[in-house]
Amino acid sequence: MKKYYLMLLTALVLSAIPVSLNAQTDEYSLRTSANIGIKLAKGLALEIAPEYRFNPATNASEYLMEAGLSYRIISWLSVGGYYRLDGSKVTDMEGTGGSSFETSNRFSFDASTKVSIKRFTPKFRVRFCNFTDFDKSTDDKTNYMRYRIGLDYNIKDFKLTPFVSAEFYQKLSTGLFSQSRYTIGGEYELNKKNAIVLSYSLSDKYKTLDSYHIFELSYKIKF
After folding, report:
1. What span, in angstroms and rounded, lies between the C-alpha atoms of 149 and 13?
2. What CATH code is carried by the domain that includes residue 185?
3. Domains in the chain: how many in total?
4. What is the 3-state secondary structure (H, E, C) of the chain?
5. Cα–Cα nearest to 140, from 101, 172, 109, 110
6. Deepest in the core among 9, 28, 37, 91, taking most CB within 10 A?
7. CA diameter of the chain
8. Rg of the chain over all Cα atoms, to the nearest angstrom
9. pLDDT 10s digit of each residue in the chain, 223 long?
10. HEC profile for 146-188?
11. Which of 218, 166, 177 is nearest to 194 (CA)?
12. Centroid of chain to Cα 129
């Protein structure tokens, strides 16, 4: 049964990726972040994640600070709640050379599950957020549900763990799926408490067929 479950999940992730091939691809985002996990009690952890984003096409910068709590209910199920402060510097595209700095707030709640099957780890997460962080080219602040499926593979006697995932955004105002994101990357373990993650994501908007490339480098540390 576990083998069939793994095969089905892998097929869902991989079959979703070709959908993005019909999209226009002209926007880029370069991102760096740190993910800090602090154990507070058994199963309970404080998570802090500062992040910087830059869009070369529009010369727009974002500075984010997210913090929240996660709780592992059982070995395969965790829940969490998070708050994020977002500060965005946007350059005037009319040629005046001016810029503006805007701030926004976001909260989210999620539940996630993962099960190790030999060297494979299928994952699933469902998240509610009060608006999308898809990119800064939209003013849509509608509440969203986000569904992400993924798969990690632990390479024997090697510190690099490759992963793939697909995430789908559902507008709660309409009930329709409007966006998706497909990610491939790898996590390199420096030691038991430190790791470096490099990933590439392709995000799609269904209505406009616009695409968004995301290149991200992050550092993970646990205390």
Report:
1. 7
2. 2.40.160.40
3. 1
4. CHHHHHHHHHHHHHHHHHHHHHCEEEEEEEEEEEEEEEEEECCEEEEEEEEEEEECCCCEEEEEEEEEEEEEEECCEEEEEEEEEEEEEEECCCCCCCEEEEEEEEEEEEEEEECCECCEEEEEEEEEECCCCCCCCCCCCCCEEEEEEEEEECCCCCCEEEEEEEEEEEECCCCCEEEEEEEEEEEEECCCCEEEEEEEEEEEECCCCEEEEEEEEEEEEEC
5. 172
6. 9
7. 62
8. 18
9. 444 444 555 555 555 554 444 545 567 899 999 999 999 999 999 999 999 999 888 788 899 999 999 999 999 999 999 999 988 876 665 655 566 778 888 899 999 999 999 999 999 999 999 876 644 445 566 789 999 999 999 998 899 999 999 999 999 989 999 889 999 999 999 999 999 999 999 988 887 777 889 999 999 999 9
10. EEEEEEEECCCCCCEEEEEEEEEEEECCCCCEEEEEEEEEEEE
11. 218
12. 12
Please provide the size of the chain in residues: 223
